[in-house]
Amino acid sequence: MYAFLRGELVASGPPVVLLVGGVGFELAMPERSRLRLPAVGESVQLFTHHLVREDEEALFGFFSESERSIFRTLIGVSGIGPKVALTILGDAQVDQILAAAAAGDALPLTKVKGIGRKTADRLVVELRDRALPWLTTGLPARAKLAAAAGDFTDDDATLALIGLGLTLERAREVLSQLPREFCAERPVQEVVRAALRHVRS
Known about the structure:
Radius of gyration: 18 Å
Order of helices and strands: EEEHEEHHHHHHHHHHH
CATH superfamily of the largest domain: 5' to 3' exonuclease, C-terminal subdomain
Shape: globular
Number of domains: 3
């Protein structure tokens, strides 16, 4: 119903309140994203998901379309409601959780409150192809900060792995275990997924 809302931040919550055209919209957000909001009174744009059920109606806000896409994937899995989905996206280690899912490792998901092993396994199947686009958005800038003190490479797969928490040396070591032709011919997301399997093997 709503693709996004752009307006004045009235309250940083929770819940977040956004003033748009004289109407105050109340939104729930992942905690990690909510903490990135500007000061009250400033303008902000949030991508939205409008949830309507027989006994519930709620509006959720996200900084990016990819974050919203992951949220929609999560709540589409049996046993995962909006509250648990927000908990996953709000976790300080969400990048590592989603990276593990992209690599086929369900164990980190089982450590999130409200998720059992069977649900974690279903999430891995659903997130495998959708997590990496979200994880790799904006990673080069983050990776540059992480590697600013030492040697640096502009290889996209290396940057992505650094952004996911690996050191420059470890990222290079893991990538060196993959066939050179594979790294040269495959999309960076596929290369990163394969590299993450080696990290967890």
